[in-house]
Amino acid sequence: MSTTKLRTFLAVARQGSFSAGARALGLSQPTVTTQIQALERDYNVELFHRRGRRIELTVVGRQLLPIAQQLGVLELEAFNLLRDSGKLNRGQLKIGAVGPFHVIEMVDAYRQQYPQIDLSIKVGNSASVLADLENYVTDVGVLAGLHDDPAFSAQLYARHPVLLFAHADHPLARFDEIPLQALQGQPLLHRESGSTTRLALEKALHADDVTPRVVMEIGSREALREAVIRGIGVGVVSEAEFIADPRLKAIRFRGNPVNTETYLYCLAERCNSQIISSFLHLVARAQSA
């Protein structure tokens, strides 16, 4: 089977059209169309439904896509290995993350050690970060919490206490530290269902039989912060993610009963990839230093 044709199929599937796929490959559209038609003809299958200018993957096309993605990554890794003799003189590392916290400091440290490697960061929610790893869209994921899945390898990066934050005029803002029981009856702004911070808080509240008054569920850190600034309620955030503001007061929970953890993930089958392992090892060394 021609790897060139598979590469063309992958470009068209990712870009969503023959013309966009051709531009991504630096080829003419007729050349791309001919290669896809030849691939379909060779195996007597249909990979795309043509609907005018739009295309959609067929069932066979959807099944072929993750295989083509894996082959594309392996081809790139083989090329990098042969070209640079394992010296990481050039290459590409794609990182997925749920937010900018932590990942920027990791990338900065890695760039200083391996300046020739091209780095990119894609931000999304936990589900999309894991899906991108599984589909070979990214190489390393930075996520809060441990996801128990044998398909992934996880490496603990850091553990952080969760803080309460309130408007500077809120009665609790007089304190630097409070017991968790002080949240009883307080107007609480919750993150969305599935949020690691929310799950950690709910577990601690349940253990101490504390019931705040949940006034709103908010789906982003930025919106939550704005709601607290407007005095709608109090919120919680990982210490590493709190952004200081004169309108806000960060308050610790006594004894740090609520914590979140940050992990680095990669596909278990790719842990020995030189560029991925170099990133994981550098981060681990930085944490132990």
UniProtKB/TrEMBL annotation:
Keywords: DNA-binding, Transcription, Transcription regulation
Keyword Magnesium: no
One Gene Ontology term of the molecular function aspect: DNA-binding transcription factor activity
Pfam families membership: HTH_1 (PF00126), LysR_substrate (PF03466)
InterPro entries attached to this UniProt entry: LysR_HTH_N (IPR000847), LysR_subst-bd (IPR005119), WH-like_DNA-bd_sf (IPR036388), WH_DNA-bd_sf (IPR036390)
Residues passing through the membrane, by range: none
Domain HTH lysR-type positions: 1-58
PANTHER family (UniProt xref): HTH-TYPE TRANSCRIPTIONAL REGULATOR (PTHR30126), LYSR FAMILY TRANSCRIPTIONAL REGULATOR (PTHR30126:SF94)
Family: Belongs to the LysR transcriptional regulatory family.
Protein's UniProt name: LysR substrate-binding domain-containing protein
